[in-house]
Amino acid sequence: MIVCAAVIGQQNNPLYLQTLQQEGGDKSLRFHYMVHCSLDAVEERLAHPPKSLGEPSDAYLGLLYPTEDFKIYGYVSNTRVKFILVVDEMVPKDEEMRLIFRRFHTAFVDAVSNPFYTVNTPIISRGFDASVQTIMTTV
């Protein structure tokens, strides 16, 4: 089950973070910390992509790192916007995670396509909130 979903901007600025656990501010702060720490793994993967010559790069970064209670997965768009998902003990298969990230990316594109949205600012949208909530709970 996905317990946290985050969108990080091109300059590693947080654009969006939603958690499922409603256990107070301390848990939310813990997820902020995990997402922030995962950016090092994302940057490392982007700097040294594991691909052969002539093969297109994959937006899905896979497992970035595990913690004691969670596993952190990553995805990066062509515009270097990063998507981070924190998953608890029930980890979906790689193909399922790819599909989840594609849905997450599509919801993001829909949200930022709003003509009233300013690029690289926090995403405040009830529609995006609902889409992310649906993605997080249907795993």
UniProtKB/TrEMBL annotation:
<dbReference type="InterPro" id="IPR044760">
    <property type="entry name" value="TRAPPC2L"/>
</dbReference>
<protein>
    <recommendedName>
        <fullName>Trafficking protein particle complex subunit 2-like protein</fullName>
    </recommendedName>
</protein>
<comment type="similarity">
    <text>Belongs to the TRAPP small subunits family. Sedlin subfamily.</text>
</comment>
<dbReference type="InterPro" id="IPR006722">
    <property type="entry name" value="Sedlin"/>
</dbReference>
<dbReference type="Pfam" id="PF04628">
    <property type="entry name" value="Sedlin_N"/>
</dbReference>
<dbReference type="InterPro" id="IPR011012">
    <property type="entry name" value="Longin-like_dom_sf"/>
</dbReference>
